[in-house]
């Protein structure tokens, strides 16, 4: 296979998976956007966490809410729990890496806030712990996972929203996670501002 054929296959595989999942993911993404809108318009905030590429997604999503997505609108309250190196390293050093997000959720989260928890496998122990902490703080959870949902799929509650990308390739799951995050931004903006 030539290099260009190999690259074209990535484009094709990504597009095909997105199209095949559009129907099954549209409703949970809509439900998640509505939950986020309800949280934000009731003086709540969204806390976001994930590891590696999912940490980058957490920061990307928070930036889109605090700054803007595609239209001008007021800033929205979002905090990526992946950015403060002093907090992350002190918790990992003094306690355990599995608590780097849960301790922040317990310190920053309030009833009525929302946790967006991202993991391509659904098995990140520190993200699972963050979900437990969010439930302890009477926060709803939006779980953005892949494969079969992993451990995160087992701990979400009926009032939470689970957006699970049923695929095995980490790269493809991450690509759909990014699309889902952009859909969330768009729907939140639509609910806030209408069709401007």
Short description:
The chain is α/β, with parallel strands linked by helices and 196 residues long.
Biggest sheet architecture: 5 strands, parallel
- Helix- and strand-based class? alpha/beta
Count of folded domains: 1
CATH fold label: Rossmann fold
Strand content: 5-15%
Supply the CATH architecture. Answer: 3-Layer(aba) Sandwich
3D shape: globular
Folded structure, characterized:
- This protein is α/β, with parallel strands linked by helices.
- The protein has one domain (3-193): Rossmann fold (3-Layer(aba) Sandwich), CATH 3.40.50.10490.
- The protein is 57% helix and 12% strand.
- It is built from seven helices and five strands; from the N terminus they run H-E-H-E-H-H-E-H-E-H-E-H.
- It has helices at 3-40, 53-66, 85-94, 102-108, 125-136, 150-155, 170-193; strands at residues 46-49, 78-80, 114-118, 140-146, 161-165.
- The chain has a five-stranded parallel sheet, with helices on both faces.
- The longest helix is centred in the N-terminal third of the chain and has 38 residues, at 3-40.
- The N and C termini lie far apart (46 Å).
- The model has no long low-confidence stretch (mean pLDDT 97).
Write the layout of secondary structure elements.
Layout: H1 3-40, E1 46-49, H2 53-66, E2 78-80, H3 85-94, H4 102-108, E3 114-118, H5 125-136, E4 140-146, H6 150-155, E5 161-165, H7 170-193
Parallel strand pairs: 1-2, 1-3, 3-4, 4-5
